[in-house]
């Protein structure tokens, strides 16, 4: 049985997440996990107003 080939972007994401070995053995599962992540990320509400963000912007105190 031939395994599906992943594109370069998927390979880079898997490698950055420390999943290179898993992606080599289970490419379809890794691609499905990345697709699920993209769907969840797209569903998050975004605001262009920084005041409405749930956490404040962190800054270092100026000397």
Q: Explain this structure to me?
A:
This protein is an all-alpha fold. Helices cover 51% and strands 0% of the residues. It contains three helices and no strands. The chain has helices spanning 8-16, 20-25, 27-43. It is elongated, with a radius of gyration of 18 Å. The termini are far apart.
Concise account of the structure shown:
The chain is elongated. It has 3 helices and no strands.
The major sheet is characterized as: none
Structural class: mainly alpha
Shape: elongated
Order of helices and strands: HHH
The stretches of 5 or more residues where confidence is low (pLDDT under 50) are none
Rounded to the nearest angstrom, the radius of gyration is 18 Å
Distance between the termini: 64 Å
The total beta strand count reads 0
Strand content: under 5%
The overall pLDDT, averaged over residues, is 81
Question: What is the number of helices?
Answer: 3
Helical amount:
40-55%
List the helices and strands and how they pair.
Layout: H1 8-16, H2 20-25, H3 27-43
Keywords for this entry:
63 residues
